Structure formats: C-alpha cells, structure tokens
C-alpha cells in the first residue's frame, strides 16, 4: 500500500499539499509514511490525535479534519497546525481563547457544506457569510481564517463531484473579494479525498486529505 505514495506525490502539483489522513492507523504505520517524507497528518478525533502527537516526531503538522466539540478545543490548541472543521462562531471563539493561553495563532478553515446528501456538519454559504459578518470576529486575534474545507457527495457521479468542488472554489473567490481582499493568508481550499482528489485538484484544491490511497483500507475493528 505504501508503494502508492511515491506515485501520489509525483502526480500532485507542487503547490498542492498532501495531508495523510492517519485516523485508525498505528504509530508504526504513521512513522513509515513519515519516513517517506510526509509531514502533514490528519486526524478526525481529538483523543486519537493527542495520543499520537505525544509519541510521534515533533515536526509533524497535525490537521484536525473531523467535527470539533467546543469542550475539546483546549486539548489541541498548543500544537495543532490547521483546524479544518470550524462550523460556528462559538467554536471560533473558544479556539481563540485557548490559543491565547498557548500564545499561538491557530489557523482555521471554515467547513462548508457542499454535498447534495444530508450531513450534519458544515456551514451553508449563507451561514458562512453571516459568521464572517459578525462584528465579534475582529476581536479574535489568535485565530486566523485561512480558507475553506469541503467534502463532495459520496457518489460515483463525477460530474456532480466536480460541480460541488467548483461551487466551493467559486464561493472561496466571492469570500476573498468580500472579506479577505487585503489578507494574503486566506488562500487555502481543503478539498479532495482518496476517491475524488484528482477532480478536486483540477478544480483548484490547495490541500488534499488522503487516507486509504496511502495506507490501504481502514479497519475500524482494529481500534
Ligand atoms: C477519513 C477522511 C478523509 C480521508 O478519506 P479517504 O477516503 O481514506 O481518503 C478525508 N477527509 C475527512 C474529513 C475524513 O474524515
């Protein structure tokens, strides 16, 4: 499985960051990928991320890609690289408060809901705009909104997947003009997983989050 990694790294344009999604993988499996040069790893659960972070090399950049509960923010703000799953002002406020304690500025992406299927997580376009208009936001000096994250529908309909990624890119451009014109940090589009990263890259992704194409199928029973 690991043999697929060089191919993947070759195939991605240099400006697209590869995040190895290591949820359910052992420290040993992660080290194997680390030793091939990967430094960005993504986890979807806070507890799992903390325990791995303690055991693995300190130059790993950890990405929180799953839903984040407010009461767990304090466990990750001292080391997390990017939180991809910000979906409320309340969460952003807590990230700011905890980031102050760690004397850090934490990069955050707004998770936008683009799939046509029902999911619980992410902001609609309208909700994202309302969040960005909230006057409270300018007080959050220890968070930096650096872009958007989105997940396409789980489907074999590649036209639909492309349409959804394209809608996220278009929304990104709108937000850039409206809220981040002078802000060069707003530049990330986290989109694309094992099954759809090629389409995502064609549609302007700057970060792909890839698990199974690097590590093989996940076995949730192992944990
Ligand atoms: C698990 C996960 C991925 C990676 O999925 P693969 O299909 O294994 O590449 C990407 N993003 C999120 C948010 C995930 O939870």
Low-confidence runs of at least 5 consecutive residues:
none
Shape: globular
SSE topology string:
HEHEHEEHEHEHEHEH
Please tally the β strands and state the result: 8
Query: Helical percent range?
Result: 25-40%
Oligomer: single chain
N-C termini distance: 20 Å
Rg (C-alpha, Å): 17 Å
Q: Provide the structure class.
A: alpha/beta
Largest sheet: 8 strands, parallel
Instruction: Average the pLDDT over all residues and give the rounded result.
Output: 95
Tally of helical segments: 8
Taking strands numbered 1, 2, ... along the chain, how are they ordered across the largest sheet?
A: 7-6-5-4-3-2-1-8
**How much of the polypeptide forms β-strand, as a percent range?**
15-25%
Bound molecules: pyridoxal-5'-phosphate
Task: Draw up the topology in text.
Layout: H1 4-11, E1 17-21, H2 27-34, E2 40-43, H3 46-55, E3 61-64, E4 82-86, H4 89-101, E5 106-113, H5 125-133, E6 143-151, H6 158-179, E7 188-190, H7 197-202, E8 207-210, H8 212-215
Parallel strand pairs: 1-2, 1-8, 2-3, 3-4, 4-5, 5-6, 6-7
Bound molecules: pyridoxal-5'-phosphate (PLP).
Keywords, separated by commas or semicolons:
223 residues; 36% helix; 8 helices; binds pyridoxal-5'-phosphate; 19% strand; eight-stranded parallel sheet; alpha/beta
Describe what this molecule looks like in 3D:
- By secondary structure, the protein is α/β, with parallel strands linked by helices.
- The chain contains eight helices and eight strands.
- The protein has helices at 4-11, 27-34, 46-55, 89-101, 125-133, 158-179, 197-202, 212-215; strands at 17-21, 40-43, 61-64, 82-86, 106-113, 143-151, 188-190, 207-210.
- It has an eight-stranded parallel sheet.
- The mean pLDDT is 95.
- Residues 21, 23, 44, 65-66, 193-195, 209-213 line the site of pyridoxal-5'-phosphate.
- Pyridoxal-5'-phosphate binds at residues 21, 23, 44, 65-66, 193-195, 209-213.
């Amino acid at each position: 499985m690991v043999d697929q990694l060089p191919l993947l790294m070759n195939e991605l344009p240099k400006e697209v960051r590869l995040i190895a999604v290591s949820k359910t993988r052992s420290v040993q499996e992660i080290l194997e990928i680390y030793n091939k040069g990967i430094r960005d790893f993504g986890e979807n659960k806070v507890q799992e991320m903390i325990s791995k972070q303690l055991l693995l090399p300190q130059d790993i950049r950890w990405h929180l890609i799953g839903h984040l509960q407010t009461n767990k923010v304090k466990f990750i703000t001292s080391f997390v690289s990017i939180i991809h799953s910000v979906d409320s002002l309340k969460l952003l406020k807590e990230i700011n408060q905890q980031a102050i304690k760690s004397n850090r500025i934490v990069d955050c992406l707004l998770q936008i809901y683009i799939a046509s299927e029902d999911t619980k997580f992410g902001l609609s376009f309208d909700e994202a705009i309302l969040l960005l208009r909230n006057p409270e936001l300018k007080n959050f000096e220890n968070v930096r909104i650096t872009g958007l994250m989105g997940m396409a529908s789980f489907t074999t309909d590649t036209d639909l997947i492309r349409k959804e990624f394209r809608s996220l890119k278009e929304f990104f451009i709108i937000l850039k003009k409206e809220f981040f014109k002078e802000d060069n940090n707003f530049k990330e589009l986290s989109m694309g997983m094992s099954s759809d990263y090629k389409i995502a890259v064609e549609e302007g992704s700057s970060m792909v989050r890839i698990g199974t194409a690097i590590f093989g199928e996940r076995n949730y029973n192992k944990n």
